[in-house]
Each structure stands twice: as C-alpha cells, then as structure tokens.
C-alpha cells in the first residue's frame, strides 16, 4: 500500500498562468506558486520565518476555478499529490521539478481579502461556493466518478394531508 497526499494552506505568489492543450481535446491547465510560511522561535527566543514555495498544477475544472477566482495574494487550501518530472535543458543537463497536482481546491479568507473578488463579482454569484471544497481535479477516472461531490439537496417535506373524519382508521376498529 502507498499514499501520495499533500495538504497546503498558503498564499498565491503570482497570478496563475492558464494554458489550453490542443492535443488533449482543449484541456485546460493552470500553474501557479503557493507560499507556505512556518513561524517559530529560535534558541535565542527570536521569531524566525521559513517560507517554502510550491509549484501547483491544476487541470480541467480546477483550472477553471483558478482562472476565474485566483490571483496573486489569494489564500488557498490545496490538496493533491506530488509529482516529479525531469527534462533536458538547452545545454543537455538533466533538470528536475516537483509539483503538486491539485485534487481539491478551496478558497480561504474573507471575500474582501481575495484580490480575485475585486472587479469580478462574488464567486458565489457564479455558482461556485468558496466555503465548500472543490475537487475539480482529474477525479477517480478509473471508476468513472467525478472528483467534485456536491452536497445533496434535501427535498422539502411533503405536506401533511388530513383525512375526512369518516375515513379515519379509528372508525374501522371492531371494539
């Protein structure tokens, strides 16, 4: 058994770059960086900060959400998995990069704090609820299930119908 899972909460470091891939049926991919900062006290009691930068890759529906609502400074919760890829650069050297492939994405913070909400309208008006996790990643393609599972809508209770006094079951009792 193995597990490859990453959970991050941080701030977007630059505006996302969104591309459309022609050979993949116009699949959309969004890439951006996410900064996570650890704050701690050193041996001398001084506050220190250590910031890690993560390369984030969002595909298809997650890329749609990123394109519409995520800008530099947006606070996000990202859940996904690690992927390391390699390539040869122009000089022939082998290069490596580690990325997080998004499975779930959630906007955090107040609407007023989100730079994407400035001038674009509220995300909730577009049908996307930022208070709910969004799993617009690749989903569970093996079983044909989408990654996003909206909360089921509870049907309104059926109105109570009262029977006429003649038809009440108490009238049919033999005693």
What would you note in describing this structure?
This protein is mainly β and 175 residues long. It is 6% helix and 39% strand. It has 1 helix and 6 strands, in the order ββββαββ. The protein has a 5-stranded mixed beta barrel. A hairpin with a 5-residue loop joins β3 and β4. The longest helix has 10 residues. It is globular, with a radius of gyration of 25 Å. About 19% of the residues have low confidence.
Task: Describe this protein with a few key phrases.
single chain, 175 residues, mainly beta, DNA repair
Indicate the radius of gyration in whole angstroms. Answer: 25 Å
Largest sheet, in brief, is: 5 strands, mixed, barrel
Helix-strand string: EEEEHEE
Strand content: 35-45%
Q: Which stretches are poorly predicted, pLDDT < 50 over at least 5 residues? A: 120-153
Strand order of the largest sheet: 1-3-4-6-5
Number of strands: 6
The helix tally amounts to 1
Spatial separation of the terminal alpha carbons: 67 Å
**What's the mean pLDDT score?**
76
Instruction: Determine the fraction of residues in helical runs and give it as a percent range.
Output: under 10%
Short synopsis of the structure:
With 175 residues, the protein is mainly β. It has one helix at residues 60-69, and strands at 6-12, 17-21, 27-41, 47-59, 75-88, 94-107.
């Amino acid at each position: 058994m193995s597990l490859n899972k990453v959970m991050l909460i941080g701030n977007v470091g630059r505006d996302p770059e969104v591309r459309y891939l022609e050979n993949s049926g116009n699949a959309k991919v969004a890439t951006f960086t996410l900064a996570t900062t650890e704050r701690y006290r050193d041996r001398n009691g001084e506050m220190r900060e250590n910031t890690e930068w993560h390369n984030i890759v969002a595909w298809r529906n997650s890329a749609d959400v990123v394109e519409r609502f995520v800008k530099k400074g947006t606070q996000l919760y990202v859940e996904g998995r690690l992927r390391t890829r390699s390539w040869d650069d122009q000089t022939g050297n082998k290069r490596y990069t580690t990325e997080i492939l998004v499975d779930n994405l959630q906007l955090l913070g107040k609407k007023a704090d989100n730079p994407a909400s400035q001038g674009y309208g509220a995300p909730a008006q577009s049908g996307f609820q930022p208070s709910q996790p969004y799993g617009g990643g690749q989903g569970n393609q093996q079983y044909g299930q989408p990654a996003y599972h909206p909360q089921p809508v509870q049907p309104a209770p059926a109105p109570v119908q009262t029977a006429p006094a003649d038809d009440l079951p108490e009238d049919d009792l033999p005693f």
